[in-house]
Amino acid sequence: MKIGIMGGTFDPIHNGHLHLAQTALTQFDLDQIWFMPNGMPPHKKQSSIESDIHERIAMAQIAIKANKQFYLQEYEANREKISYSYKTMEHFRKMYPCDEFYFIIGADSLFSIETWKHPERLFKACIILAACRDEAATKESLNGQIQMLKGKYGAHIKFLAMPLEHVSSHEIRKLIESGEPVSEYIPAEVEAYIRKEGLYGSGNRKN
């Protein structure tokens, strides 16, 4: 099978994540997308993550349940240590040697990926799908970096045309906190869960 890995804090998961996953599924003829909530991501401070891992898992599960090709992957969420992408992808390669893995990242991450832990091992373990807007100027600006990574590491990197989204998880949290409507940005059932649990200042959080 061809499996796309979409990691993130998903704090909260939103329509942009779902649209991007569907685009990857279609554009590269993938069989599945695994949504992988990060438990302890190395690139983010824990203090910047506002909901706990169980809440983020619940929101992701709610958001993807209607799509039979979307799956929740809890490998990193269940780890008590910082999860590095290269180790995660090597684990999947070992567990599922007959499958081909596609690791979805933002195109801007290509410019910092050499600062990640063992990027050379990550490149060997998967194909990178770099999500960027499908514009000639954007692709041109990234092509040099891609060619450098290919030459230096033998990296296999492909462009993933990214749907134009106007809001991030951070902005959604701010909107919820200020009482602004967010129904156009997140699935209705995810919003209902957020309101029920009082996340992001939407009400009285349960103890």
From TrEMBL:
Pfam families per the UniProt record, alphabetical: CTP_transf_like
EC nos: 2.7.7.18
Coiled-coil ranges (or none): none
GO BP: NAD+ biosynthetic process
Group of enzyme by EC: transferase
Catalytic activity from the UniProt record: nicotinate beta-D-ribonucleotide + ATP + H(+) = deamido-NAD(+) + diphosphate
MF terms (GO), sorted A to Z: ATP binding; nicotinate-nucleotide adenylyltransferase activity
Family annotation (SUPFAM superfamilies): Nucleotidylyl transferase (SSF52374)
Domain Cytidyltransferase-like: 5-174
Function: Catalyzes the reversible adenylation of nicotinate mononucleotide (NaMN) to nicotinic acid adenine dinucleotide (NaAD).
Similarity comment: Belongs to the NadD family.
Protein name from the UniProt record: Probable nicotinate-nucleotide adenylyltransferase
Species of provenance: Dorea formicigenerans
Organismal lineage: Bacteria, Bacillati, Bacillota, Clostridia, Lachnospirales
